[in-house]
Design a protein that fits this description.
Layout lengths: L1 H19 L3 H14 L1 E5 L10 E2 L2 E2 L7 H4 L4 H5 L12 H10 L4 E7 L16 H4 L6 H12 L2 E6 L25 H19 L5 E4 L7 H7 L10 E2 L11 E2 L14 E6 L17 H13 L3 E6 L9 H17 L17 E6 L2 E6 L7 E4 L5 E6 L9 E4 L2 E5 L10 E7 L10 E2 L6 E4 L4 E3 L4 E3 L5 E3 L7 E8 L3 E11 L7 E6 L2 E6 L5 E15 L3 E11 L7 E9 L3
Helix pairs in contact: 5-7, 5-11, 10-11
The chain binds ligand H79.
Length: 572
């Protein structure tokens, strides 16, 4: 009896383990379409499209889908919006065509945002578009069918930890109406779990389940939802379930990480203006060029771009979004080979643009067209053939030296947003160490972005001007190779930030074996940058020299955040 129980027990444990483990090959197979896709459409559509950013005549600040929370709208008043929600212009095939025409390979739509309103027919709650509105249709059903017809993957966003409508769901997002009173566990059990089960059961094979804002999601709460994923064994989930679950993808929101997220698949989600859910008066649109370059930047770091649209309460994707998506689509029509199914750049940083690659090919996305027509690619391989992606029959001349391969370009950029030059190579690309060169006036800028970062903790971060941060290991250091052509005396300045309580570290800047020492003074915050003068340094030789910044002592949390070290020539 005992041994039977033991055997049954072991079989059970083995079964669970089997169900939960996946070999790396199985995982790669599951992730394949997503990794190749590179570009998807995020759709934020819900009841918030009715007020569209205005409540009782007042324009409400912040993101449109948060209006109920930001304006502290009582639950019953907000729910009454459903009576006015009749998106008769909604046409699933048209939305899917807009995405497809943009070159997007998948769609992720809000099935239920924090406001609690389900954009699908649900048995779990009448607060859904089928039962509570005059529309009486299930747009997710129609989108699932339209995506199937068009060959796009469909994913659902589901906000599991916030629900400002159903009792118990508003604990995480604030609380402003007694109707929200209740237990989060009851809400999860009675509302979230059955709804997610419906989403994973009723709409055919899904590409993605996109959780959000895992506030108060303990392991126990996450474990109420996570087993449902076995209903769709191939589904890809993000890292926002909570409870310590990592999911498949990292999800930087509104930012492109400086170096991607090494070792993890990732997807930047971003708005085209400043809101996810529709706001009638938000006209702060990003230019097509910015969107194209964002997509390239992300692909060059091995990530995906999930670009948002916020349809109106009539069911229309705003025209400025449609125009921009068409422009990106036009670019991808000509240059898609350099985006889809590519892998990340082999280079750390390129002064003129970005790089993606496929076996045997470097795709050089030129943002800043070289004035002298010479594109320097810091690669050690022989480039057997170079050409514009849009003109593969016209070979471009190349030459090689110790800095890499120079490709001779036409005098003007054929595509100002980004022109793709293809460099065909044999074998794996061999990136060459790039060196910092002196500006015309002699200035030497050692930027964090150009540094070789050596260490365990310190790493590159930031959006615009990059910095190194997380410098908690005193032995970490930054290095550069500098090509000196104007020896002489230079003043060394450092652009750094240091939070209150973390000051006092000492560090040394070494260039060409000459050292200056500094002591970090607090600047009031990790993002408060100040430029401090360290002292003079003499450069005696021309040619390649080494530069480095390393810490000597670190009495507190971290050494500093560092953006750059600059050497300015002193008057002779
Ligand atoms: O669905 C989109 C956002 O609504 C959601 N994630 C993306 C994909 C999101 N929810 N919360 N957050 C992002 C971050 C929290 C923002 C807040 Fe605020 C800052 C909440 C309160 C202060 C923004 C500003 C919302 C209200 C005021």
């Amino acid at each position: 009896m005992r041994s039977t129980l033991l055997v049954v027990g072991l079989l059970f444990v083995a079964g669970v383990a089997l169900a939960q483990t996946e070999t790396p090959e199985q995982r790669d197979a599951r992730m394949k379409w997503w990794r190749e896709a590179r570009f998807g459409m995020f759709i934020h559509w819900g009841l918030y499209a009715v007020p569209a950013g205005t409540w009782k005549g007042q324009q409400i600040g912040g993101i449109g889908e948060w209006i109920m929370n930001t304006a502290k709208i009582p639950v019953a008043e907000y729910a009454a919006l459903a009576g006015q929600f009749n998106p008769v212009k909604f046409d699933a095939d048209q939305w899917v065509a807009i995405a497809k025409n943009a070159g997007m390979k998948y769609i992720v739509i809000t099935s239920k945002h924090h406001d609690g309103f389900a954009m699908f027919r649900s048995q779990a709650t009448p607060f859904n578009i089928y039962d509570a509105t005059p529309f009486k249709r299930d747009p997710l059903r129609e989108l699932a069918d339209a995506c199937q017809r068009a060959g796009l993957k469909l994913g659902f966003y589901y906000s599991q930890a916030q629900d400002w409508h159903h009792p118990g769901g508003a604990a995480a997002g604030g609380h402003w109406d007694p109707a929200q009173d209740g237990s989060m566990d009851d809400y999860l059990r009675d509302i979230a779990v059955p709804k997610v089960r419906e989403l994973l059961t009723n709409y055919g094979p899904l590409g993605v389940l996109w959780w959000d804002t895992p506030v108060d999601m303990t392991r126990e709460r996450a474990d109420m939802l996570r087993p449902l994923l076995s209903l769709q064994p191939q589904i890809i989930t993000n890292n926002r379930l909570g409870g310590g679950y990592e999911g498949d993808t990292e999800t930087p929101e509104q930012t492109i990480p400086a170096t991607g997220t090494p070792g993890r698949d990732w997807e930047t989600c971003m708005t085209m203006n400043d809101t996810w859910g529709y706001k009638s008066y938000d006209n702060n649109w990003k230019s097509p060029q910015t969107l194209i370059r964002n997509l390239i930047d992300i692909a060059s770091k091995g990530g995906n771009y999930l670009l948002n649209v916020g349809p109106t309460a009539e069911g229309v994707i705003p025209e400025p979004s449609v125009e921009r998506l068409a422009a990106v689509g036009k670019w991808l029509q000509a240059n898609g080979e350099a985006i889809y199914a590519t892998s990340a750049s082999p280079f750390k940083k390129l002064a003129w643009g970005r790089c993606t690659q496929k076996p045997g090919k470097l795709y050089l996305h030129v943002f800043s067209w070289p004035q002298d027509g010479k594109l320097l690619v810091p690669v050690g391989n022989t480039v057997t053939r170079a050409y514009l992606l849009t003109a593969p029959d016209q070979a471009l001349a190349t030459s090689a030296d110790e800095r890499g391969v120079t490709i001779l370009l036409p005098p003007t950029a054929p595509d100002p947003a980004a022109t793709v030059v293809v460099g065909e190579i044999e074998g794996e690309p061999v990136p060459l160490a790039t060196s910092v060169t002196q500006a015309a006036d002699g200035t030497i800028t050692l930027s964090a972005a150009d540094a070789d970062i050596i260490g365990e903790s310190v790493r590159l971060e930031g959006d615009q001007e990059l910095n190194v941060g997380y410098w908690v290991n005193v032995n970490d250091m930054l290095q550069w190779q500098v090509r000196v052509d104007k020896p002489g005396d230079y003043m060394v300045t450092v652009n750094l930030a240091c939070d209150v309580g973390s000051g006092g570290s000492t560090y040394v800047v070494v260039v060409d074996d000459q050292a200056v020492v500094g002591k970090v003074a607090e600047t009031g915050g990790w993002r408060n940058y100040e430029t401090v003068e360290l002292g003079p340094i003499r450069l005696t030789q021309t040619g390649l020299v080494r530069a480095c910044v390393r810490a000597l002592t670190k009495p507190n949390l971290a050494v500093m955040n560092l953006r750059s070290v600059v050497l300015k020539p002193l008057a002779q």
